[in-house]
Amino acid sequence: MQGFWLPLGMAAIFGAFTGLLFRLSDKPGHERPFMFPLLGVVAGIMAFFIHQALTWIANAPNWLLPALVVLLIWLWLGRSNLRFRRSKE
User: Where are the transmembrane segments (predicted)?
Assistant: First the structure.
């Protein structure tokens, strides 16, 4: 059971850390800055389950998990996503 919870927790923490880095590297002016680490945690958990499925199906390597976490956070919080920008009134 430890082989499941420990990597899941580590992926979630790494996702929160990467989301925080996205928050710190982004320009100020977002409505909800707390959403960056929160979406990072969700991305870490989703990347863990995607990695588990890929491991069971295609024997994916372990280095793929951090790459999936960063990729999901980049897709959700990257420059092309304007969902959390302040509306100009």
Answer: 6-22, 34-54, 60-78
Residue 3 and residue 86: Cα distance in Å, rounded? 42
Geometric angle at alpha carbon 20, from 40 and 15, rounded to 5°: 30
How many other C-beta atoms lie within 10 A of the C-beta of residue 8? 15
Model confidence, pTM? 0.78
Distance CA 38, CA 36 (A): 5
Q: What is the residue whose two structure tokens read 């710190």?
A: 24
Q: Give bridge partners of residue 30 from the DSSP assignment.
A: 85
pLDDT tens for each residue of 26-60: 666 666 677 888 888 999 999 999 999 999 999 99
- DSSP string covering 63-82: THHHHHHHHHHHHHHSTT--
Task: For residue 38, count other CB atoms closer than 10 A to its CB.
Answer: 13
